[in-house]
């Protein structure tokens, strides 16, 4: 009986590595690309699903719903542009622009130690607690290391940064379309 148990254990030890070797490695997380059509031209952002999976999934759901279509860039500064407040659809309510969101905070702070606020970085705006970030995001026009570690960097402009540089308040986002997913 002892020999039978020993033979079974040794058999499993030989077979187990072979079973593991046959398993498929899960595919790397895709990086969705979204195309933004503005009055000034078109730009593209690649989102970092591997670094901020819940944040990117939240934004992708909003893009699929058409949430951003028709919103205005409510904050435009020398260092960044910002969008994502549904109140910007109402030009008469300009005093409240920047205070609205989709109503569903992400609930986690996915702040990367490796992703930095460089030119073209896309980050999630929040009101002092990154767990409550929601639909508002900003695009950096210049590097801002003082923001590193305070806000989640969820993407990077990969095409059309010259368009982002031209955006003015209150330019309208005509459309935001998920183009593809680039391999990791």
Arrangement of strands in the largest sheet: 3-4-6-5-7-2-1-8
Return the domain count.
1
Q: How many β-strands, per DSSP? A: 8
CATH H-level homologous superfamily name:
Cyclophilin-like
Radius of gyration: 22 Å
Specify the CATH architecture: Beta Barrel
Percent in helix: 10-25%
CATH domain topology: Cyclophilin
**What is the percentage of strand-forming residues?**
25-35%
Distance between the termini: 51 Å
Walk me through what this model shows.
The protein is α+β, with helices and mostly antiparallel strands. It has a single domain, classed as Beta Barrel (Cyclophilin), CATH 2.40.100. Helix content is 22%, strand content 25%. It contains three helices and eight strands, in the order H-E-E-H-E-E-E-E-E-H-E. It has an eight-stranded antiparallel beta sheet with strand order 3-4-6-5-7-2-1-8. Strand 3 and strand 4 form a beta hairpin. The longest helix is centred in the first third of the chain and has 21 residues. 34% of the residues are buried. The N terminus is likely disordered.
């Amino acid at each position: 009986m002892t020999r039978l148990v020993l033979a079974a254990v040794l058999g499993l030890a030989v077979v187990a590595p072979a079973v593991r070797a046959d398993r498929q490695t899960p595919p790397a997380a895709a990086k969705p690309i979204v195309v933004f059509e503005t009055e000034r031209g078109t730009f593209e952002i690649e989102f970092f699903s591997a670094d901020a999976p819940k944040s990117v999934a939240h934004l992708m759901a909003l893009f699929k719903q058409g949430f951003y279509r028709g919103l205005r860039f409510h904050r435009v500064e020398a260092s960044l542009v910002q969008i994502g407040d549904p109140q910007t659809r109402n030009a008469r309510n300009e005093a409240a622009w920047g205070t609205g969101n989709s109503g569903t905070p992400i609930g986690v702070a996915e702040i990367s130690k490796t992703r930095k606020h460089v030119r073209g970085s896309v980050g999630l705006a929040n009101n002092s607690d990154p767990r409550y970030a929601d639909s508002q995001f900003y695009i950096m026009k210049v590097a801002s290391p003082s923001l590193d570690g305070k806000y989640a960097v969820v993407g990077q402009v990969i095409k059309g940064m010259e368009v982002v540089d031209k955006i003015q308040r209150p330019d309208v986002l005509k459309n935001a379309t998920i183009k593809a997913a680039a391999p990791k």
